[in-house]
Design a protein that fits this description.
Belongs to the glucose-6-phosphate dehydrogenase family. This protein is 38% helix and 18% strand. By secondary structure, it is an alpha/beta fold. Bound molecules: NADPH dihydro-nicotinamide-adenine-dinucleotide phosphate (NDP) and the ligand O=C1O[C@H](COP(=O)(O)O)[C@@H](O)[C@H](O)[C@H]1O.
Length: 557
């Protein structure tokens, strides 16, 4: 029955196979879904021109809550019994509800195979919801709006029951969050399309979580499947890094400041480093991780998305399609890296460490014996266009490292004709710290205060913790889920972006899988393999180690 249904939908869409070009043409044509009560691009521009999180939140209240035309919304959590649902999705919905950011008539329905009662589901989620004292009544009110339907992922009758539960809420917009394993993805989406779509003037939006395939072919299969069922503007592919404050800030920083545009190019920038570091290993989830490895888990999506925002040309507007068109152009200018552009590592236990740190990746009982899956990778990508030719973009990510950190480091070229004796002049570096403790700082030379005329390293510093003391910084999922309510796709991945991301990484991934190069061992809690630092030098990133920041506890701010 599913096959037949799929064929029918495909037949409807002429060829049934949606090519890369077709994706691209279609998404370039389709305008962004407008905010409730407003026309598309204008409203989106308005949102993007606001900088502070507080302003954004109050604007959202205006736009979504008060201009929601009184429409009912049902938020469906598909896979409601799972890890993502309990740790991220339910807590996020609760925070949005608590802060009054959701449209007034929003209901929540969880769906999964487990025969759970609502109190049992509530018990699973509560530990992650950070309910504060005094919020007990509100949390009760939140759960009163929640229902749970148990059903299979492949029986249409079960989806009919789900549809009935939705219909009991009246005519409503429907937002399906697919917090599901890839194995049930196809049958669930087929059933949703068959029996659970909204009717009349109400919309249906589908939020899709990664993994979006595991290489170009599987990702294309998934994209074609989804394109046969839903319109691109109904699909929201989440990359939660696009919901982070400092990642969203990249556009404003680059295009809202006159000082950066003239220097943002190969004439002035020596190299760009985009880093992700985590201080813990696979924590017993190595079985899952081993199927993907760090390149698929973090680099191909989060770090590459950040790269596109650093490297893209200025879009004509902040309309989602204009931004995503520019991001795709950057990706199209990147060739696949080969093994000379790569350092791979795998963590080993630290005999002197405590707790988890004693165990290496291969000590995780869920990891296959002798696995060569990398838990650390440094890759140099080259954006071969007029702006960036010759500027390496060094992407680096790893688990079980010495700290939690995500940052972008734009290192400028050496000052020409240095007049200061003793080699004191160091390269400028613009650092955008994504997490923890958001900050933007420019490492720069200044005269040593006092009688001397020496130059010394100092900084221009925008530390969010001190500059925006009372601003509540929303979590990435809060922003992104609200975006879905509002119909804004700016911070979601379009199908052609996904295509290009896999095109870049698939040859390398296949090579690694075939040749099984042994990753370089690095000790749990270290900075990764020393070879990665050598690699940085080779790709024109100069580390002097001389810069000193006066506040010793800066990274804890
Ligand atoms: N607003 C704020 O909060 C500000 C905070 N600071 C803080 O000051 C401190 C120093 O600033 P930062 O810009 O990091 O200064 P540095 O240029 O000294 O960079 C230090 C970082 O360089 C990396 N590194 C170490 N050895 C090498 C190597 N051989 N090759 C390449 N990279 C290497 C390390 O990070 P990795 O292990 O990731 O490679 C290290 O953390 C940081 O803690 C920073 O957060 C500074 C300015 C403003
Ligand atoms: O997507 C993923 O991201 C998390 C890190 O997210 P963060 O917001 O905590 O930085 C990572 O732990 C996980 O392996 C990866 O799949």
């Amino acid at each position: 029955m599913y096959k037949k249904f799929k064929q029918l939908v495909r037949a409807d869409k002429s060829s049934g196979h949606v090519s890369e070009q077709a994706f691209s043409a279609k998404s370039q044509l389709s305008p962004e879904v407008p905010l409730p009560g407003r026309s598309g691009p204008t409203s989106t521009n308005k949102m993007a021109s606001i900088v502070s999180a507080d302003e954004v939140l109050s604007k959202i209240r205006d736009e979504v809550v008060h201009e929601g035309h009184g429409a009912s919304h049902v938020f469906l959590i598909m896979g409601a019994s799972g890890d993502l649902a309990k740790k991220k999705i339910y807590p996020t919905l609760w925070w949005l509800f608590r802060d009054g950011l959701l449209p007034p008539k929003t209901y929540f329905i969880g769906y999964a195979r487990s025969k759970l009662s609502m109190p049992a589901l509530q018990k699973n989620c509560l530990p992650y919801m950070k309910v504060k004292e005094g919020e007990e009544d509100k949390v009760k009110a939140f759960f009163k709006l929640n229902d749970y339907v148990a059903g299979s992922y492949d029986k249409t009758e079960d989806f009919m029951r789900l549809n009935k539960a939705i219909e009991e809420k009246g005519s409503c917009n429907r937002l399906f969050y697919l917090a599901l394993p890839p194995s049930v993805f196809e049958t669930v989406t087929l059933n949703l399309k068959a029996v659970c779509m909204s009717k009349g003037d109400k919309w249906t939006r589908i939020v899709v979580e990664k993994p979006f395939g595991r290489d170009l072919a599987s990702s294309n299969r998934l994209s074609n499947h989804l394109a046969a069922l839903f319109k691109e503007e109904e699909l929201y592919r989440i990359d939660h890094y696009l919901g982070k404050e400092m990642v969203q800030n990249l556009m404003v920083l680059r295009f809202g400041n006159r000082i950066f545009s003239p220097i943002w190019n190969r004439d002035n920038i020596a190299s760009v480093v985009i880093s992700f570091k985590e201080p813990f290993g696979t924590q017993g989830r190595g079985g899952y991780f081993d199927e993907f490895g760090i390149l698929r888990d973090v680099m191909q999506n989060h770090l590459l998305q950040i790269l596109t925002l650093v490297a893209m040309e200025k879009p004509p507007s902040t309309h989602a399609e204009d931004i995503r068109n520019e991001k795709v152009k950057v990706l199209k200018s990147i060739h696949s890296p080969n093994m000379e552009d790569v350092v791979l590592g795998q963590y080993v236990g630290d005999p002197n460490g405590s707790g988890d740190a004693k165990d290496g990746y291969l000590d995780d009982p869920t990891v296959p014996k002798g696995s060569v899956t990398p838990t650390f990778a440094t890759v140099a990508l080259h954006v071969q266009n007029e702006r960036w030719d010759g500027v390496p973009f060094i992407l680096r990510c790893g688990k079980a490292l010495n700290e939690r950190k995500a940052e972008v480091r734009v290192q400028f070229r050496d000052v020409a004709g240095d007049i200061f004796p003793g080699g004191e002049v160091k390269r400028n570096e613009l650092v955008i710290r994504v997490q923890p403790s958001e900050a933007i700082y420019m490492k720069m030379m200044a005269k040593t205060p006092g009688m001397s005329i020496n130059a010394e390293e100092s900084e221009l510093d925008l530390t969010y913790g001190s500059r925006y003391k009372d601003v509540k910084m929303p979590d990435a999922y809060e922003r992104l889920i609200l975006d879905v309510f509002m119909g804004s796709q700016i911070h979601f991945v379009r199908s052609d972006e996904l295509y290009e991301a896999w095109r870049i990484f698939t040859p390398l991934l296949h090579h690694i899988e075939k040749e099984k190069p042994k990753p370089i061992p690095y000790v749990y809690g270290s900075r990764g393999p020393p070879e990665s630092d050598e690699f940085f030098k080779k790709f024109n990133f100069t580390y002097s180690g001389t810069y000193k920041w006066p506040h010793s506890n800066s990274s804890k701010m």
